[in-house]
Fold:
Amino acid sequence: SVLTETADLGKREDRKRVVKLIHELHPDLIVNCAGIRFWGESTHIPVDHQLETIEVNISAIVELSIEGAK
Structure:
């Protein structure tokens, strides 16, 4: 069977909820289609946006991959 879960992986609370599901359901496969980017000089992009990009594109991938491998 397939389960689709919607989450804002830029938010720690949503990642915790997904990790809880992973621990409860022990899926064989996790597909993460999240990703964001900003275009332009980094000095013109608000720091908040850059930090959110790191949360979604790096932190979430690492966290969900490690929790899924347990």
Remarks:
- Helices lie at 12-25, 47-69.
- The chain has two helices and no strands.
- The chain has a mean pLDDT of 93.
